[in-house]
Amino acid sequence: MVHTTGRKTFKKGEMLIHEGEQGDSAYIIEKGSVEVLVAREGKLIQIGTRSDGSIVGEMAMIDDKPRTASVRAVEDCEVLEISRDDFARRIESSDPILRMVMQVILTRYRDMLSRSQLVVKVPPPGFIKAEDLEKDDKVVDVAVNTLKVYNELHDAIKNHELKLFYQPIIDLRTGKIAGFEALARWFHPEKGMISPGIFIPVAEESGLIVDVSRWALNEACESINILSKEVNSTSCMMDEPLFISVNFSVHDFSDKDFFSHVEKIMNKNKTKPKQIHLEITESLLVEQPEIAREGLEKCQDFGIEVSIDDFGTGYSSLSYLHFFPINTLKIDQSFVRLMLEQENNYQLVKSIIALAKNLNMSVIAEGVEHREEAAVLKSLGCESCQGFWFARPQPLEDAVEFIRNWCPPDVDFRKDL
Ligand code: C2E
Ligand code: CA
Ligand code: CA
């Protein structure tokens, strides 16, 4: 049934909501008051009252579960009924900031309610009322904080507070530097360095990721010329040109101008498409497969290689590997970390390398922190890897120094373990 928002009246004693029934509307009480009741041992127990200006049945806006309480008019009431469909439509068409804040509040509210199982229990003495939860400072704090990060991030791009760090990717067969992964850092004037683990999710939720990705691609294109020059003047030079791998989000592909911006940025910087790799996580890819495939195909046709990040963590079906144009699988660092301790992780790493080879794809292992891991990966036929053992992500100037001083660690590359 599709309801739209509309006014209703309820006479004193009339039920607005029945416990146990499937709810698909909430009610804003414009006039009058109601009581919230739960049935226990054949009796209706009043667990709260609401008067004008309050909302009842709001959980129906969030999930599709049976009502956990009844609501009865204690006097004649006038209410505004909001259906779930109408609510969803309004959120969808709202301002992106409003949408983001609403989604955060609703998710937190649902989590909190389900944690406390507030309404389904017989209320103990002194229990918290639902009204109090609405005023909970934590809920408001989270929303306000997210909004603050959004506003600050918006300005951070303009104010050049974002910086790209570069982590070398080493070719295990030759010990040479094959490329770098570009990883964003935010240098906040007051809070100091903020990790991408904090601000990328906010950028993704709010749509700002499109600006972050364009900025990162442009920076990477500018840096590749500097790094390539350095590599070409040392013995680090590879047969293939040096590349920088840039992280993208699937939201980037939803932007209809995504590819034309990629092309424009690369042309402006005179970057060869082979010198940029595009990284995307598999979990993001399967969220919007058709849109993602179209964007990835355009990039690949242009000459940009595509890597699947955090491979093995996000999605159980392998059939998608044929669906998307993919050049490289990046083995997630969680597998590499436990590879030498747990046989099943070792087998998983081995299988991913074999799978990549069978599908004619390259493979890069992430999170190499020890010499033994690099040696085992090499012996399994893994072509490249990156990790703290070689270098942490570093500013461009340090990456240039890293190239100048790089000498392949002998023991690891001369013999397999
Ligand atoms: P990711 O793409 O999987 O990046 C690898 C993360 O592992 C990086 O964290 C890197 O610093 C860290 N790492 C590298 N080697 C090691 C190691 O040996 N041990 C350990 N423990 N960690 C290692 P970081 O830089 O904090 O980035 C976190 C995530 O944020 C990235 O994960 C990526 O998903 C996202 N991200 C970073 N920059 C960007 C960006 O410009 N755009 C987008 N869309 N996402 C980004
Ligand atoms: Ca990555
Ligand atoms: Ca990764």
Helix amount: 40-55%
Quaternary status of these chains?
A: single chain
Count of the domains: 2
Output the number of helix runs. Answer: 16
Q: Describe the biggest sheet? A: 8 strands, mixed, barrel
- What is the spatial order of strands in the main beta sheet? 9-10-12-13-14-15-16-17
CATH topology-level name of the largest domain:
TIM Barrel
> What sort of overall outline do the alpha carbons produce when their principal axes are compared?
elongated
Beta strand count: 17
What is the CATH superfamily label of the largest domain? EAL domain
- The helix/strand class is alpha/beta
- Computed Rg: 27 Å
Instruction: Give the DSSP E fraction (strand runs of 2 or more residues).
Output: 15-25%
CATH class of the largest domain: Alpha Beta
Structure write-up:
With 417 residues, the chain is α/β, with parallel strands linked by helices. The chain folds into 2 domains: 2-132, Sandwich (Jelly Rolls), CATH 2.60.120.10; 146-404, TIM Barrel (Alpha-Beta Barrel). It contains 16 helices and 17 strands. The chain has an 8-stranded mixed barrel, surrounded by 5 helices. The chain has a 4-stranded antiparallel β-sheet with strand order 1-8-3-6. It has a 4-stranded antiparallel β-sheet with strand order 2-7-4-5, with no helix packed on it. β16 (362-365), α14 (371-379) and β17 (384-385) form a beta-alpha-beta unit. The chain is elongated and about 85 Å long. The structure holds ligand C2E and calcium ion (2 copies). Residues 309-310, 330, 332, 366 line the site of one calcium ion (CA).
